[in-house]
Amino acid sequence: MRKTFLASALVMLCFFSCGDKKADTSDSKSGKTKNISGKYQVCDIDGFTGNSARFSFNDDGTFSLTYYSDLDSELVYNGKYKLSGDEVSLDFKKFETADEYRKASSLIREMDLTDEQVMNAVKMANMTLDKEPVSYIFSGDDGKNITRSESQHYYRKAVFTQAAEDMFREADSLDIKAKGDGYGYLSSDESRCENISVPDIFSLEDFEESMSKTIFENEFERYTQEKGFTDGFDLSEYEWLAVLHDEDVVAFGIGTEFDSEICGISKMWYIDGDGGGAVFDEEDKPLTLEKMYEFYKEKE
């Protein structure tokens, strides 16, 4: 489950970008200057958060973003911001030298890397900053939360998708298989449980408990404002569907609508006519559990 800090940092950078706008803290609605100096937790619009990123805004129009990884390391980004009402646009400063990056990353400072090695990481990080600027909005009753404007349920969607990925891998290790050459279905909806061979002692409750334990010791236990995530993860709180071919799990979905902000699906694949595996096109994937079920029924 654990990723390297550099990988996490680069993924995080993908959500931010640079622009050439100067800092402006004016409130366009009132015409007055709005003071947003202070620290803000990055979270979803309803407070659901991974507790991994915090902003600090300064009166002079500058900001810093501290990203806390699961390796107890920190990476700090700096830049300028422009405020318009409750929305703030970020202009991140690119890293220019190896020493700049070392100063920003506590992990890099602990590693014995040459300037050339550090600059390779810098080059990759800066490539993600060439897109349009990303904006955030201020949210929460206490005014100390900040949310991505373009994806206001980013963390919830990410945790559902990761849970589906974990379960996809874990389900392969269970003694459950599809009958014959077709597909088998195991689901929270018992009417969709068909064409499967299971151990003599087996129940949906057993499967849900086993799948829930696959992400017991990871960062998801920090998510405390979503049903099913308060104490670890509880699959029984959600609708789900596992599709099997022989002993392989070819797809796993959690939630009802995969195009919504809070549901997830693992990578889907199916067995082609020659018996080989074919990866399903992510852009055309089914958007609901029902459509996912229908997709594989059509492949039989």
Describe the structure.
The radius of gyration is 23 Å and the shape is elongated. Residues 1-24 and 26-33 have low confidence and may be disordered. It is 24% helix and 24% strand. A hairpin with a 5-residue loop joins strand 14 and strand 15 (277-279). The strands form four sheets. A seven-stranded mixed barrel has the order 1-2-3-4-5-6-7. Strands 9-11-12-13 form a four-stranded antiparallel β-sheet, sandwiched between helices. The protein has a two-stranded antiparallel ribbon with strand order 8-10. The protein has helices spanning 5-13, 98-104, 106-110, 115-127, 154-171, 204-212, 289-299; strands at 38-42, 53-57, 62-68, 74-84, 87-92, 135-139, 145-148, 177-178, 183-187, 196-197, 240-245, 248-254, 264-265, 269-271, 277-279. Helix 1 (5-13) packs parallel to helix 4 and helix 2 packs across helix 4 (115-127).
Number of helices: 7
Which class do the helix and strand fractions yield? alpha+beta
Major sheet summary line: 7 strands, mixed, barrel
Strand order of the largest sheet: 1-2-3-4-5-6-7
C-alpha termini separation: 34 Å
Share of helix, binned = 10-25%
Determine Rg (CA atoms, Å): 23 Å
* Model regions low in confidence, pLDDT < 50 over at least 5 residues: 1-24, 26-33
Global mean pLDDT = 77
Q: What overall geometry do the principal axes of the alpha carbons give? A: elongated
| Estimated share of beta-strand residues | 15-25%
Series of H and E elements = HEEEEEHHHEEHEEEHEEEEEH
Strand tally is 15
